[in-house]
Amino acid sequence: MNILIIGGGGREHALAWKMAQSPQLDRLFIAPGNAGTAEVGTNVPVGVEDFDGIRELVLREHIDLVVVGPEVPLVAGIADFFLENPDLKDVPVIGPVRAGAELEGSKDFAKTFMLENDIPTGSFRTFIDYTVSEGRDYLATLEPPYVLKADGLAAGKGVLIINDLKVAQQELASMLKGKFGKASSKVVVEEFLQGIELSVFVLTDGEGYLILPEAKDYKRIGEGDTGLNTGGMGAVSPVPFADAAFMKKVEDRIVKPTIQGLKDKGIVFKGFIFLGLMNKDDDPYVIEYNVRMGDPESEVILPRIKTDFVELMKATAEGRLSEMELDVDDRTVTTVMLVSGGYPGSYEKRKEISGLKEVRDSVLFHAGTSINGNKIVTSGGRVIAVSSYGAGMQEALKRSYASAGKIRFEGKYFRRDIGFDL
Ligand code: AMP
Ligand code: GLY
User: Fold this and answer.
1) Gap between the Cα atoms of 210 and 94, Å rounded
2) Are 37 and 322 in contact (CB under 8 A)?
3) Which residues contact 60 (CB under 8 A, 6 or more apart)?
4) Which homologous superfamily is 124-190 in?
5) Is the pLDDT of residue 142 over 90?
6) Ligand 2 centre from 98 Cα, in Å?
7) 2-97: CATH architecture
8) Which of 10, 30, 152, 231 is most buried, by CB atoms within 10 Å?
9) pLDDT tens for each residue of 216-248
10) Can 2-97 and 124-190 be said to share one CATH topology?
11) Is the CB of 217 under 6 A from ligand 2?
């Protein structure tokens, strides 16, 4: 079978690496991919939002199944585009239709959905420009810190957590005036949840589902979880506190009602649901939904999945997931993200990367790399995720850090405290 993966980051390299292990795979394409995906498949220079370019590629290469990595094409309706196109309608897409992608594309939709389906989450209200004064009053009824979220996609930057009431009220007004463009023309104000975060991933065909291994990611640039938010600086799976009792609560209180709620809305959701959760006194609350795998969570979860991933994708497309079982490696996997100096602010690209071949004890997932002649160079803020197995977290981390030291590029930075809070 011929498979196309849409995207070009560490998550897509991990998906490509995993699917390349399947005997069911004939040819693998990644659009646009990176220097890492080029080692396990064929990169095609087509952008994730270039639906016509993707259509041509699917027809030209006789693609049998498409797996969508990032949220942007899903929220833009790539799955609907396939269903509505006579040439493409028989090619299954793993990733929800636009209506399902609203779980990530609109925070207001997601919070309302949780309210309707009794899914535990913080209390909230949504405001638009002409209800800004009601928003100010609502903020005054809450305890600090105050959580303000742009309704739409804002490349991970649309969430503000503010300690001072006056500042929060000013920020609400500035968001509604367009601080994040159209994404913040609606703003969700929600209760702050105190606890420890984790990410749980569900693969569903709309009826059946499998809960994939959970993970914890480290979003801040600085050690001790300080400084600016990034796409993710490292991750660990499994998460020790996510024991069977906790995961049972997640399944009963969140996973089942989420899948039932989508069905009740008539949304056929085939793809990944990423639950951003807060563990508050041993009870799970949803902070956010995403409709894709996480990054860098994929770089620790996919190495732990032993089941043939192409078979899992096929079963999802064919509505056979309830017949499938997931075989999970019980070792720990950790990943440490090597990033460009300056990230998440401005940084330089095209720095030559060396030492990759010296790494023996880790799996390297490329995030922001490209090929330049016979060199591999940096092409993004997050450059390479260094993933390692271990009997426990300390052993896995020791390997990731030893390998991280072998890889060289100008300005390389990484956090040395991944897993510190576990
Ligand atoms: P989001 O983009 O919704 O994941 O928000 C980004 C980050 O802000 C989350 O990973 C949390 O660390 C934090 N956050 C968001 N909403 C809340 C909340 N209601 N309570 C506490 N922290 C939150
Ligand atoms: N690591 C968080 C995300 O993928 O959104």
Assistant:
1) 14
2) no
3) none
4) ATP-grasp fold, A domain (3.30.1490.20)
5) yes
6) 19
7) 3-Layer(aba) Sandwich (3.40)
8) 10
9) 999 999 999 999 889 899 999 999 999 999 999
10) no
11) yes
